[in-house]
DNA sequence: GACCATGATTCACT
DNA sequence: AGTGAATCATGGTC
């Protein structure tokens, strides 16, 4: 019996679980990570193990008493020494403990298989479904100014794409780096998705504008962020973002508006004509990609390309 | 089988 | 902890 407690930790730390929103959120996260699935299977193995173990123990006891009874009956006809009884019981117990050993062994195997399968599943690369890639791309290109989905957005995307949050993070990590490395290559893709979402974006903006007009004719109090570098294009959005020097990952409302802006600007640019490729100004030029790289501002605050006052005025200044 | 695309992993950085 | 960058490893296509 020592082996039992030593082999597998029996008592899981799971008692009851009152409906706690925090717990539910964690559960969802684990589910998204595919962890609960693993845990569920593990629990299943554990349950089987314990019921089997119990069964064996019970059977062992029953069998011993049965044998004892037989021996007792036999003792009437012939003398049976206590030593013989002890020996009998010993044999029975040894037999059953060997059975238990087998049970433990197969349980361990099952756990190992489960674990390796779980790890393999995460390690093995399988292409996402076309739909999933589409969803991810749509998000990416409509948030091109700030393709850093929040935790909630990642969870949402994960759910939509039927992949894990980690996979979403991986995807965005890869996408950002690969997009940045070779923007030209992704031009077509960017155009495609921009056009795709343009209609929805236009509708949304139109609705928002209408709503704005009807509701309050005053200035929109978009306390949004955005905070990225819009190279040229002295659009009104500059004002919006300079309202708040905050970094991205800010309010979702702002992000939404920004995504629509991205899409719309793309479309506007497209219709307004552009120099194809080699002029350097790709139509879907990385608004916020500065010369040195990333979307991430603050890495190199210098960015002194040409102090042509205009709208360029990267971030910095704005001494509020 | 070569080649490219792509998801995953690792490591360094902040 | 989240990210960028490099790299690995596999899938898919020819």
Automatic annotation (TrEMBL):
Residues 289-308 have a biased composition (Polar residues). Belongs to the TALE/PBX homeobox family. It comes from Patagioenas fasciata monilis. GO terms for cellular component: nucleus. SUPFAM superfamilies: Homeodomain-like. It is found in: Nucleus. Residues 119-182 form the Homeobox domain. This is Pre-B-cell leukemia transcription factor 3 isoform B. The keyword Ubl conjugation does not apply. Residues 1-120 form the PBC domain. GO terms for molecular function: DNA binding; DNA-binding transcription factor activity, RNA polymerase II-specific. Keywords: DNA-binding, Homeobox, Nucleus, Transcription, Transcription regulation. Pfam families: Homeobox_KN, PBC. Residues 212-235, 289-320 are annotated as: Disordered. The keyword Flavoprotein does not apply. Residues 121-183 bind DNA. PANTHER family: HOMEOBOX PROTEIN TRANSCRIPTION FACTORS. It comes from the Eukaryota. Residues 212-227 have a biased composition (Low complexity).
């Amino acid at each position: 019996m020592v082996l039992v407690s030593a082999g597998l930790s029996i008592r899981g730390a799971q008692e009851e679980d009152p409906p706690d929103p925090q717990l539910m959120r964690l559960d969802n996260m684990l589910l998204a990570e595919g962890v609960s699935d693993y845990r569920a299977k593990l629990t299943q193995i554990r349950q089987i193990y314990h019921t089997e173990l119990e069964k064996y123990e019970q059977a062992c006891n029953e069998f011993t008493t049965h044998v004892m009874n037989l021996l007792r009956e036999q003792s009437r006809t012939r003398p049976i020494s206590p030593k013989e009884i002890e020996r009998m019981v010993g044999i029975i117990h040894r037999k059953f403990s060997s059975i238990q050993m087998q049970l433990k062994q197969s349980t361990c195997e099952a756990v190992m298989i489960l674990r390796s399968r779980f790890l393999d599943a995460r390690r093995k690369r399988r292409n996402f479904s076309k739909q999933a890639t589409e969803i991810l791309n749509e998000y990416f290109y409509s948030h091109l100014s700030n393709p850093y989905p929040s935790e909630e957005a990642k969870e949402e995307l994960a759910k939509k794409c039927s992949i894990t949050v980690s996979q979403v993070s991986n995807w965005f990590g890869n996408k950002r780096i690969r997009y940045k490395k070779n923007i030209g290559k992704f031009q077509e893709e960017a155009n495609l998705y921009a056009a795709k979402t343009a209609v929805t974006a236009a509708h949304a903006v139109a609705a928002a504008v209408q709503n704005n007009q009807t509701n309050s004719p005053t200035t929109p109090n978009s306390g949004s962020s955005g905070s990225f570098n819009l190279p040229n294009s002295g659009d009104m959005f500059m004002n919006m973002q300079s309202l708040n020097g905050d970094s991205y990952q800010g309010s979702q409302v702002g992000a939404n508006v920004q995504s629509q802006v991205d899409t719309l600007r793309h479309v506007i640019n497209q219709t307004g004509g552009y120099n194809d490729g080699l002029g350097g100004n790709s139509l879907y030029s990385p608004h916020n990609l500065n010369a040195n790289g990333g979307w991430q501002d603050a890495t190199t605050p210098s960015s002194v390309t040409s102090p042509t006052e205009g709208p360029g005025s990267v971030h910095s200044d704005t001494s509020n």
